Amino acid sequence: MSGIYSLITKILRNIHSNLRKMVLFKVIFKILSFFEDKWINSFFVSLYPKPSFLSFINKNKIISHYLFSPLIVIVVFAIFLLLSIEPISLNLEITLAIGFISYFIGSMIIPRFFFKKKKNIINFSMKDIYSIGFCLFIIATLFFVISIASVGGIPILKPSLRYALKPILSMPVFLVVPAVALLGAAYLNDYKKGKIGFSRVRFRFLLLMLISTGIIVSLGYRTPIIAILLIIVIMGYYGKIISTWEIIVAVAIGFAAIIGIGYFRSLAEYMVTKNTNPLYTLQSRADFTVHVLNLLSYISGDFGLLHGKLIASAIPTSEIGPRMLIGKLLAWRTQVTLTPTLIGPMFVDFGRFGVAIGMCLLGFIIGIGHKIIRLSKNPFYIGLYALLLTYAILGVETGLLDIQVLGYYAIGVVIYLLCILKNTSLYDKLSKSIFS
């Protein structure tokens, strides 16, 4: 494993190094550096509220220490259910209670048994992390240009073009999301070591957010935009570079983006009229998704229907994807894609038993990640936690069904397990060093 990791990082470091030597990238970074210096020394920065602005908010212990704890997933799930006016069946209520309790056990109780005596984690080279993030960002940008060229226009300006996008070309664009987490981790590390100042790291986070969201907005997608905003906010929160009031503003902007993009896209597609309440698009999504979950609860039972086939359908070689498979189960048509919420896939595959195990496992992944960043304050683990927590929050509606998201969780699980293993005597017996 260490050999594979070393080979990959060596290749990516070489690519990163060669790209930075190109005239095009030298010009781009000089321009960005120019604007960075101008912004930091500008008069407008002095007018911006200081970090102490509205400091009384930070006196609340929950906000200052636990705002983005693993339990936020349950809070968001509860709010999502409240948005819907669709009645929840008794059968589903029992399943939700099982899921919430299992998640609480996995995220808040089980992690207490780890990292008691030793607190060693695997340390990754930040040069490697930056190179990986940089290369992912370049790949995403290249496929963005290719996607735009393939449909002959910008989908946000002409929504019908969004349906002409080919997944094989548009999916790599979403690599910009983990790229933001990795590049942000590298910037946080530089700030922590005193290589860059407070204003400079904030500017880089802002620039990273603007460029990456601009790419996704142009394609007309909503979910990756919220993912990027959440990652930036969570990393800024744990990296101590974003104030609480700024987090509140960012959440409000994200909420407005969900409503605004959905509303204007629906107008362009004649799904709503100008007289329709903009909140209707959000409420209707919640209603429909809860309705789907109600139906799944009726047909899945205690041990499920597909026994792993749904999650396996996320593999790109599958004839139909997982959301289409759910559409086939409920609507008898493979052309329909349905979002099943966070517990839907667990329900369909393994029933109520699967919800209990799946939510406990998800809770443990998020919970152990949270414990690691509280103990280590390591920027890389802050970025990893932000990435996984973000998709758990977004998965409240969409479910964890996309192959790239499952890949992020698989990588996270391997890293966390290695960290746990490193704090046992078994680690030394198996290998002198897995990662140097």
From TrEMBL:
Pfam families in alphabetical order: O_anti_polymase
Origin species, per record, is: Methanobrevibacter filiformis
Stated name of the protein: Oligosaccharide repeat unit polymerase
Keywords for this entry?
A: Membrane, Transmembrane, Transmembrane helix
Q: Which domain of life is it from?
A: Archaea
Q: Which residues cross the membrane?
A: 66-88, 94-114, 134-157, 169-189, 201-219, 225-242, 247-264, 350-368, 380-400, 406-424
